[in-house]
Amino acid sequence: MPGTRKPVGVTGANTVTISFAGFNRAWAAWIADRLERRGVQVVQQRWDPPVSIPLEESLRDLTLARGRVLVILSDWYFQLGPRSHEEWNRALRSEVAPDPDRFAAVCVTTSALPGATSALGAADLTNVGAEEAERRLLVRLGLPTDPLPEGTPAGPRFPSDIPQVWGGVPRRNIRFTGREQLLTDAYRALQESGPGAGVVTLHGMSGVGKTQLAAEYVYRFGSEYDVVWWVQADRRALYRQKLAELAPELGLSTGPEYGERLRAVRDSLRRGEPHSHWLLILDGADEPDQIWDLVPTGPGHVLITSRNPEWSEHNSNLVEVPVYRRDESVAFIRRRAPRLTPAEADQLAEALEDLPLLLDQTAGWLNDSDLSVEEYIELLEGGIDQDVVKVSADFPLAFQTAWSILLNKLRDTVPESVDLLRLCSFFAPGSIPVKLLKDMPPGDLPEQVSGLMNDPLLWNKAINQLRQYSVVRLESHESAVDAASAGESIYMHRMVHQIVGHDMSEENRQEFIDVVRRALAAADPGRPTDTRLWPAYAEITPHLKWADVLKSTDPAVQTLVLNCLRYMYLSGEYRSGIKLGERALGAWRELFGEDHPRIWELSYHYANLLRSVGDYAATEVIERAAVEHLRVERGTGDLEYLRAATGLAADLRGLGRYDEALEISSAVLAGYQELLGDQDSRTLSAQNNLAATLRLLGRYSEALELNGRTLDARRQFLRQRHAWTLYSEINYATDLRLLGRYNEAFSLQNQSAQLHRRVLGPDNPQTLRAEHNLALCHYRNGERAKAADLFTRVLERGERALGDSDPLTMMFATSQSFFAREHGDIDQARAISEKVVQGYVDMLGEEHPYVAGTRANHALILRSVGERQQAYHLMEEALADMEQAVGEPHPWTLGCAINASAIRNLIGDVEAAVALTDSVVTRATEVLGRTHPLTLSARIAHAADLRGIRDRQRAEKFETEALGDLEATLGAQHVHTVSARSRNRPYWDFEPQMI
């Protein structure tokens, strides 16, 4: 009996050497921990004997270790090499049986093992829990089984127990071979990284096995984590969706909105609550610029697979994944195709250039074939007959021919599997939602695929054949049901996808692509404005390109394209949307002609996306053409005309032509009211747009009144959390702030910003705008610390998510600059300001009011660093330009004048300063009222100028009255009141507004 053997200590040293296959590292770590807690010295030794050394000699070398050798028995231990059971039986009888006390074993597999392993007297650790497994281990080694003291820290997780949160991880590849040094390098890089920097990227060309390596890492080291979450990261929108799905698994209390879940997940991972030991795997992240800003930070680890080494520029350690070493290739081939000899495996590896994906696919079917390796290599070198399946000439010769042979093998065994592959090639590579196909009515599918989709047995047969040859892998990993039957999605490698896509007749191509188009159209949720449906659009949009939907004449497919463009606009995926819109315009003009209704509908969505990145001149051309055409064809009382006119008004607002925009916006609102009434969502949008125009004209009270009505109606007729309702809250809070009603503005915006983060997500452009307005509310209320933190965070996120030149980012940068000028780093303020001014010049031209306004801000920076003459000339130029752009009574012109008077005073032109502030007080009182913050600033400034010309009596009167109004309006302790009481001269900050 195992329990009667000598205790470990009898051999002289209380030491155990654990011999294990790398595949079983988690078992080795757990056993070592259990033994070390009981005072046993443990040495872990990975078993990977060279094929060139006889097995007996390798076992004999194990006896050189001190103490007893504990072998972890598994399929992997005996497959390394690989060796036959006969070889193992001979070696075990020769080296283990004569000296059984030197060896002990535990068994962690239920598979059949070589018969002579009975000499090891293995303790069976399968199908038992952690406590029983530990008891059996200790008994086998003759160690006491007394429980450890209370409060003993927890060690590694029991290998049979998966982490508390586990999702998306592919099945373990039982044929995984080699790569030991790469796994070690990745592990060390993650373990040795500092807090928040635990990111490693496995990078290499397609087909080298990056995904398989990442999966093996998870299974070897996953027991060290409480959370393991695998996501496809080849597309930003899909990555965000899959990351958001982690929220309920973490037990986070969130609503159903996608943005709320995403924010909660990122915050949870960052804080390490409820789990600090987490591992996130981003598979296929080939475009770092698309997702690097969404890579979580915190106490956990991130493992990335990518073809792109640029991840090194984003705080990631790189581990390069090359093709197999030749010995790894030979070992893998022999495990995949046991009938091949080492010499034949070497020949095959040479011919296929050691590329793991190709070795896997080729060896798998070659093992089932009567073809010899020599004959197969002849095919590779000589090509194949013309009447068999062919593949693209874009690939290297060996790859072309190898794939031709494999596809013919599939065609001969399960022809439906080749049709399924071809169908899948019209989805994007990677995760392919075959569920969309299976949900289609049988009559909508090609005859050769219809039976496959509706016959579970045939479906399983085809899928299993593709899996057997490693052409696809299943993604329904965690389902208790047979994944082949569940079949929600399959994963197709991009190399496989590309080569299959080149191989089919035009007739088959058209038939298959039409099926995929109809499947995508059927999956369209139909409401891109509903944030709860954004995950569905995130899943659909990547496939549009591959299904070539822009060439479809099916109205449902065309509607899908338009809805996806709308989703991209609302979710902030501007660049992707612009690319799709540009391609769609070209394709549809060719398909329908210039004046088809679909063209005008598409133009509207495309212009929205272009306008979002500040290309107002281009959008004006598009929208004006639509307006002119629709006016002639349908008249001004047509809904399509009104929608086009809405876009044109927005373009004019962006170009700074506010009076023209006002005229059109007013007419559009009247038109919608007449056709649809006051409560239709389009009427409310027109009302919102008119209010935006009024705000840009400085008519803040009128904008507030309109936005208040719009907000009330949207709260009544839409959801409280609807994106448009939240948008109205930003607008109403902005108007309140611009009117000096700071406390009311803060109260509304603070609550709304929280809802934005939950509903739309932290990096949605609308959320960023909400938080920016909240930062301005903090600032105007004198809460400088809160404002500083929020200004900085919003700008950083805007730069990451939208880019430096985006209109929103420019707006955020303007605020960061004027805040830093007064309360931060003047050098930082100057650098940002110079970039902002030039950015607006490049985007909008020299005569735009935003250029004048940001130059006025920059003049204040020059004043602060002592460059008085430069500040004076720049401020005078900005004042003249602003007056020319928006008129003398506009609040922006009045604000520039307040700043200009300060600099005139500074350089000694006191009389000019007095005259300017005198006129500003008169105009501001007329336009904004006596107690508006801008008017009050003008009155305080005028008092200072009167003191400058020694008119103390009038100065005292002006100052006393202004201070009284400040105290009555803002309060005695408000920062502006305190500053005025201390006779600090007021200034004005130009804030660009969204259009």
Written account of the structure:
This protein is of the alpha/beta class. Helices cover 59% and strands 6% of the residues. The protein has 45 helices and 14 strands. It has a six-stranded parallel beta sheet with strand order 6-8-9-10-7-11, with helices on both faces. It has a five-stranded parallel beta sheet with strand order 2-1-3-4-5. Strand 1, helix 1 and strand 2 form a beta-alpha-beta unit. Helix 37 runs antiparallel to helix 38, helix 39 packs parallel to helix 41 and helix 41 packs antiparallel against helix 42. The longest helix is centred in the middle third of the chain and has 19 residues. The chain is elongated and about 115 Å long.
